[in-house]
Task: structure prediction
Amino acid sequence: LFQRFHGRCRLSYAVMPRFALSASESMLESCAALLRSHPEARFTTHINETTAEVAEICRLFPWAHDYLAVYESYELVSRRSVLAHNIYTTDAEIRRLSRHHASIAHCPSSNAALGSGIFPMSRHIAGEVRCSLGTDVGGGTGFSMMKEALAAYQMQRLAPEPMILGPHTMLYLATRAGAEALALEHETGDFSSGKSADFVVLDPGARGVLRSRLACAENPEQILAALFTLAGPECIREVSVEGQIVFDRNSQDRSLN
Result:
């Protein structure tokens, strides 16, 4: 699979065991062997998502002093590692994640929908652990990063150690933070010269709440806030990938008519 897909077009290969709970030690050893053979590959899995999961990990891996230690023992945690959730983490795990330069994918919609808990973002930020956004695929409620950023804002307001995520931080989490998590920040993620980018063009429509709110916006921050809170899939007018338009609502509407 690595030979077939890695480096083809925009694809990169990731070694991705579901999580340690469903992986035998021999499977984790195989993951480590793959990463040694292909150091340019990435690694992603889940960690510390629920209290029941953490307790079961302790039972299945009694030699590990915490959840992260399971992955560390197989040398699976590095700059190219993205670990999802990490809700019920310890301070020691946060310190080691920072030393490994690993990233955490915060999946707020999934955490809320499944009742998993609230991600301690402020502890991760204080511990200098890189954080980005994720949808947890089927565990979440959609794939929109704008929707996920809004969910992160709402969840972090309710956190035991709350954080207020301003619109600029929400934009960062939905764009450059993802590039940084995947070690692609030198290629994409912002408007720096020479970087590649995909674009989503939003149209508030001729009427409606979003159009009215944008008309009253006094600065870019208020525009961003309105887009994150009020813009939905119906506002997407155009999507381009590497300069090529892959979705055009006007063309789609004409074909339907």
User: Anything to note?
Assistant: The CA atoms of residues 121 and 156 lie 7 Å apart. The mean pLDDT is 95.
